[in-house]
Amino acid sequence: MKPYVISNVGMTLDGKLATIANDSRISGEEDLKRVHQIRKEVDGIMVGIGTVLKDDPRLTVHKIPAKKEDNPVRIVVDSKLRVPLNARVLNKDAKTIIATTEEINEEKEEKIKKLTEMGVEVIKVGKGKVDLRKLMEELYKRGIKKILLEGGGTLNWGMFKENLVDEVRVFIAPKIFGGKDAPTYVDGEGFKTVDECVKLELKNFYRMDDGIVLEFKVKK
């Protein structure tokens, strides 16, 4: 069994998450509220370590009225355990789970000890990189039945490649950022053929702020 996963993203019409200088002001006020409403409705919110290092997010519900218990469990996929001990995602606002690999050295062991002392749970799954399929099973066992995936391109690719995403919600802003090195919604090595790719079914769409929201089910 695995959690139901909603991949949500705010991107430009050309699929970028930020400019080449990491300016990611894409969503308007109403769209930010939409995202925080989803956060309030799920059990967990998942990002990759790249997002934590780049944006230092809190990953809590704060753009709409909410109580502390409305905050989902924060899940960070971090194969090399690079999470800074002062990252906001480790604060006391909500429970945090760090997913890392099974390879352990002295330095990693020490960091796991510190994280545990801070009340952070560390799950070790996979060799070389986090085994996302196994991670989903572990999270489900912990009562996390619904996850909001707010990943960057690398984590999004891993989740789509392993067929772990159930639903996609996209805010498309009427902007073009360009830049071959600007971060996109899904990176990774990519599928080689159309037959292999992830196929979606459009379920809903509506205007929001100055853009449009598209909601899809992933065809299984």
Brief overview:
By secondary structure, the chain is of the alpha/beta class. The protein is built from 5 helices and 9 strands; from the N terminus they run βαβαββαβαβαβββ.
Please state roughly what percent of the residues sit in beta strands, choosing from under 5%, 5-15%, 15-25%, 25-35%, 35-45% or over 45%: 25-35%
Strand line-up in the sheet with most strands: 5-4-3-2-6-1-7-9-8
Ranges with pLDDT <50 over ≥5 residues? none
The level 1 CATH classification is Alpha Beta
Based on Cα principal axes, name the global outline: globular
Radius of gyration over all CA atoms, rounded? 17 Å
Helix content: 10-25%
Question: Could you walk me through the main structural features you see in this protein, from its secondary elements to its overall organization?
Answer:
With 220 residues, the chain is an alpha/beta fold. It has a single domain, classed as Dihydrofolate Reductase, subunit A (3-Layer(aba) Sandwich), CATH 3.40.430. It is 23% helix and 25% strand. The protein is built from five helices and nine strands. It has helices spanning 29-41, 49-55, 106-117, 132-141, 153-161; strands at residues 4-12, 44-48, 73-77, 96-100, 121-124, 146-149, 167-173, 200-208, 211-218. It has a nine-stranded mixed β-sheet. Strand 8 (200-208) and strand 9 form a beta hairpin. The longest helix is centred in the N-terminal third of the chain and has 13 residues, at 29-41. The chain is globular. Its EC number is 1.1.1.302. Homodimer.
